């Protein structure tokens, strides 16, 4: 078994025993559960970001590290998902329905078992033997020092080896299943997608004046770039994923829309805006786990996530409205990424905490 995190010292939960002990304890009869089983001891799933970008990505990363650490071996899709702590529909995300959409489209042949199924196995004396189990235990990950600092389960597995393209099977499966025709893309242009929260009924929003200035600056990048201003709440699930998948640069204020970074192409750029002085690794960790470039924007200052402390800082106003941001550091990140792509090299972003003085330039 390739465990993610430390297991509780509870013999009713998990024990490591020898084959001879298993024979004595369970007898000679068992049902083989072939292939890969992904198992979640997790109750914090009723949100697209937590379910997909944390739990699913953590399971798949752990699986890749155990089955193909150098990226050479294929990664067969799991046969089944087991929710050991939840019954249906307790893992679903209400009316948003992205959790179910992801399972059905990215993992179309995977069966699902629930807490009730496991309780019945115990009641009936059912013995199963699994070929390979990838186990996520969210409470156990809190024993990891890196997770304790950031409160993000991905932090506990950041150092695990995996192939460069380890997530591509999941992404490709998702995109192949979308009930939409592929939208043409001019490969000579980078696609910049700004995920706006300005129409959100509640939660974080940029200051109206700053958002207007940002939109004007982005539009001024055309026709050199393809620039898309999107409100994901106005698109269906398939359209949201397709929009992200076409993007080379995904820009947005800290929020659920950035979860779609999961579907970006390889080595894209994620630019996350947040309240100056605040810091959370919700999107930095998955972006870098997937091999994307990541920068954060604090008003007029560019932040390099790799040089930030692992702890979270959530000041008053972090989730509020009227958040200030200037376009200059965003444009600098976009241009640095563009230069790297043109040269076929890693982009050279401005140094950590580079401040760009507010300019009166008309974009």
Description of the molecule:
With 363 residues, the chain is of the alpha/beta class. The chain has two domains: 2-176, no CATH class; 187-355, 3-Layer(aba) Sandwich (Rossmann fold), CATH 3.40.50. The chain is built from eleven helices and twelve strands. The chain has a seven-stranded mixed sheet with strand order 7-6-8-9-10-11-12, with helices on both faces. A five-stranded parallel sheet has the order 1-5-2-3-4. The protein is elongated. The N and C termini lie far apart (56 Å). Mean pLDDT is 91; it is low at 1-6.
Summarize it.
It is built from eleven helices and twelve strands. By secondary structure, the protein is α/β, with parallel strands linked by helices. Residues 1-6 have low confidence and may be disordered.
């Amino acid at each position: 078994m390739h465990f993610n995190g430390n297991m509780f010292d509870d013999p009713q939960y998990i024990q490591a025993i020898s084959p001879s002990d298993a024979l004595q304890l369970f007898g000679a009869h068992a049902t083989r559960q072939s292939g890969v089983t992904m198992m979640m001891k997790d109750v914090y799933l009723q949100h697209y970001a937590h379910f997909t970008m944390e739990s699913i990505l953590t399971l798949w990363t752990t699986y890749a590290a155990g089955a193909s650490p150098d990226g050479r071996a294929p990664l067969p899709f799991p046969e089944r998902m087991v929710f050991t702590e939840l019954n249906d529909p307790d893992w679903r995300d209400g009316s948003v329905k992205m959790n179910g959409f992801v399972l059905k489209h990215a993992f179309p042949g995977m069966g699902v078992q629930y807490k009730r199924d496991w309780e019945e196995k115990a009641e009936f004396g059912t013995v199963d033997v699994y070929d390979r189990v990838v186990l996520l235990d969210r409470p156990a990950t809190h024993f990891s020092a890196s997770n304790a600092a950031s409160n993000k389960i991905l932090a506990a597995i950041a150092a695990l080896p995996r192939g460069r393209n380890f997530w591509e099977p999941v992404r490709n499966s998702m995109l192949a299943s979308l009930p939409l025709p592929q939208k043409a893309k001019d490969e000579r242009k980078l696609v910049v997608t700004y995920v706006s929260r300005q129409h959100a009924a509640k939660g974080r929003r940029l200051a109206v004046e700053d958002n207007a200035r940002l939109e004007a600056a982005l539009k001024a990048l055309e026709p050199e770039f393809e620039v898309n201003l999107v409100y994901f709440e106005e698109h269906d699930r398939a359209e949201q994923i397709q929009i992200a998948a076409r993007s080379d640069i995904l820009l947005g204020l800290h929020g659920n829309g950035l979860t779609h970074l999961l579907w970006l192409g390889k080595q894209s750029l994620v630019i996350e805006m947040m309240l100056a002085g605040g810091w959370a690794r919700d999107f930095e960790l998955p972006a870098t786990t997937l091999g994307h470039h990541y920068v954060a924007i604090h008003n007029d200052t560019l932040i390099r996530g790799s040089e930030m402390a692992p702890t979270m800082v959530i000041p008053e106003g972090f989730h509020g409205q009227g958040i200030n941001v200037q376009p200059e550091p965003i444009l600098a990140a976009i241009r640095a990424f563009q230069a790297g792509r043109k040269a076929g090299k890693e982009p050279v972003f401005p140094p950590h905490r580079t401040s760009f003085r507010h300019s009166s330039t008309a974009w």
